[in-house]
Amino acid sequence: MTPPTAEWVSKAEGDYDNVLLLRRSRKRSRYDNICYHCQQCAEKYMKARLNEARIQFRKTHDLEALLDLVKAIEPHWTIHKPRLKRLTEFAFTVRYPGASANRADAADAFVTCTEIRSLAEPVLVLNNE
User: Fold this and answer.
1) What domain range is 24 assigned to?
2) On the chain, which terminus has fewer CB atoms closer than 10 Å, C or N?
3) Residue 96 domain-assigned?
4) In a domain, 24, yes or no
5) What is the largest CA-CA distance in the chain?
6) Does the pLDDT of residue 129 top 50, yes or no?
């Protein structure tokens, strides 16, 4: 794994660790943060995969746009497109007043994040401590 890819993976793992901690919390406000960190985790794993394949990408939080690039090397990831579209919304909507995530949103975001992490694992050789 290249050093920049390792950095993307490290950042993604940080978000994943935050999600795991938040899921154990009993605070009502945790759903927004779970969804946000799930989006960030998936985004960083996708960017790590692109980086490792030496595919250029622009600065974006749009997981569908990243998927359009990833599908050239990982075509089977496209089955997650509808879920990634929904997950993209959590990059910004729940960060401001006017929208909040609920338990179902957080559960779905976690499933999507975990699936993307699992898809990235064989290529990025994650250290699951």
Assistant:
1) 3-122
2) C
3) yes
4) yes
5) 41
6) no
Give the model's pLDDT for residue 128. 46
- Give buried/exposed letters for 83-107 (b at 16+ CB in 10 A, else e): bbeebbbbbebbeeeeeebeeebbe
Which pTM does this prediction carry?
0.91
Identify the band that residue 126 occupies on the pLDDT scale cut at 50, 70 and 90: low
Number of domains in the chain: 1
27-31's contacts with Cβ under 8 Å and 24+ in sequence apart are 30/106, 31/94, 31/100, 31/101, 31/102, 31/103, 31/105, 31/106
Q: Which amino acid is at 12?
A: A
Which residue stretches of the chain are H helix? 3-24, 30-52, 63-70, 81-89, 103-124
16 Cβ partners below 8 Å, 6+ apart? Answer: 37, 41, 113, 117
CB 115 within 8 A of CB 43: no
Question: What pLDDT does residue 95 have?
Answer: 84
CA 94 to chain centre: 15
On the question of pLDDT at 105 being above 90, the answer is: yes
Asked if residue 37 belongs to a domain, the reply is yes
